[in-house]
TrEMBL record:
Residues 1-16 form the signal peptide. The lineage of its organism: Eukaryota, Fungi, Dikarya, Ascomycota, Pezizomycotina. Residues 247-260 have a biased composition (Low complexity). This is L-type lectin-like domain-containing protein. GO terms for cellular component: COPII-coated ER to Golgi transport vesicle; endoplasmic reticulum membrane; endoplasmic reticulum-Golgi intermediate compartment; Golgi membrane. The keyword Secreted does not apply. It is a single-pass type I membrane protein.
Length: 425
């Protein structure tokens, strides 16, 4: 199989290398016997649940964005030296982004969950980050933490990387092969059989668990996982631990014969062989399910496109109704031309004529109107005052009559007093 082509070099170099089955997937005929779960792993996410297919696992989808996905092994690694092979693919539009993390930590499911290197808190272990850091087209960086550094609140998480290399991982059209090899003397990271970085100063304890997390922004990348195999080079491995081998037939390659991978479960079980030209019933069922999903998605897209087309036609008809006809546009244009001509004629008349005499006449007219109004108002006020005031002759007569009444009353009083009898003592 093509998936095992890069693994052949490692198998040839290291004898008696065994796969740690509880921490691995994708090394057999299919990733999982069921599309509902991944044996030995916990799967989940935010905004999307990782989709398990026969040959790959979609950690984050191409649509929609702002999603997260995680895979966490349920079994800690008890080996002190190990090699992890990780095959992934990232695809998306030109300006898409996201990050993919490979973790080897303590209590990863509880303390990390769906977090990325930028949103994780205090974790204990090793993290390998694949993203477009700095806009350079892609990079692979290594991070370490002993549980004391809170990455989420750190001012510059990028400065905590202890090793890195540039790697344009997006839209390659093929899976990228990433290997992490840890021994008591060195930690080595290679990508596509090329050294990325290595260091002898890292010590990773036994008992940690592996995990994979992915996070995407609004414009997302789709991260697909094809294979994750953890192997141990311990010579004391029992026969019950699965061993992955690849037979080579170099002499028959020129005659068209293909290589056949052999999965040996133990020394007593029969050997199971598969070829690329054969498909199992399970694979056919899975292909049928995938075709049904594609058909459903296509039908949904067709319905959406039909709805959009109907809305577009309605809006186009409404716009056409609101648009003026050719005759109306010509009429409006003619009216505007006549208005412009009239304004131009008025402007020319104003420029030619001298209106000083007209203004003088207007001034005299206003002056005459003001005088007439003033005289009329003065006469009206005088008449109103005269009509409303009492007559002076009547007032004088009243005064004289009052005085006469007083004189007559005094005379009468004197006469009566004179005629009264006199009293003598």
């Amino acid at each position: 199989m093509r998936v095992l082509a890069s693994f052949a070099t490692l198998v040839a170099a290291v004898s008696a290398q065994s796969v740690i089955e509880s921490s691995s997937f994708g090394y057999g005929q299919s990733i999982s016997p069921s599309s509902d779960y991944l044996p030995g792993w916990l799967t989940g996410g935010e905004g999307h649940v990782p989709q398990i297919l026969s040959d790959k696992l979609i950690l984050t989808p191409p649509y929609p964005g702002n999603t997260r996905g995680f895979l966490w092994s349920q079994t800690p690694v008890s080996q002190s030296e190990w090699t992890a092979e990780f095959q992934f693919r990232a695809s998306g539009p030109e300006r898409a982004g996201g990050n993919l993390q490979l973790w080897y930590t303590k209590d990863g499911q509880d303390k990390i969950g769906t977090s990325s290197i930028y949103t994780v808190g205090q974790f204990d272990g090793f993290a390998l980050v694949i993203d477009s850091h700095g806009g350079r087209g892609g990079s692979i960086r290594g991070f370490l933490n002993d549980g004391t550094t809170d990455y989420k609140s750190h001012r510059s998480v990028d400065s905590l990387a202890f090793g890195h290399c540039a790697y344009p991982y997006r839209n390659l059209g093929r899976p990228s092969i990433l290997r992490v090899k840890y021994t008591q003397s060195v930690l080595e990271v290679t990508v596509d059989d090329k050294l990325c970085f290595q260091t002898p100063k890292v010590a990773l304890p036994e008992g940690n668990t592996f995990g994979i997390t992915g996070a995407t922004p609004e414009n997302p990348d789709s991260f697909e996982i094809f294979k994750f195999v953890v192997s141990s080079s311990s010579s004391g491995s029992s026969g019950s631990i699965p061993v992955l081998q690849e037979s080579s037939q170099q002499g028959n390659n020129q005659q068209g014969s293909s290589q056949q991978p052999i999965v040996v479960r133990n020394a007593q079980e029969p050997v199971v062989q598969t070829t690329d030209s054969q498909a199992t019933p399970q694979q056919l069922v899975d292909i049928g399910n995938r075709l049904q999903l594609v058909d459903q998605a296509t039908n949904t897209l067709v319905r959406d496109v039909a709805g959009l087309a109907s809305k577009f036609e309605d809006r186009h008809a409404e716009a056409m109704q609101q648009m003026a006809t050719k005759d109306r546009v010509a009429s409006i244009d003619a009216r505007l031309q006549r208005i412009e001509q009239a304004l131009a004629a008025i402007q020319r008349d104003l420029e030619r004529k001298d209106y000083s005499s007209s203004f003088s006449q207007l001034h005299e007219t206003l002056k005459t109107s003001h005088l007439s109004l003033h005289e009329a108002l003065h006469d009206s006020l005088r008449n109103i005052i005269t009509a409303a005031s009492p007559r002076m002759g009547f007032f004088i007569c009243m005064i004289i009559a009052f005085q006469l009444v007083l004189v007559i009353s005094y005379v009468i009083y004197k006469r009566r007093r004179a005629n009264m009898p006199k009293k003598f003592l």
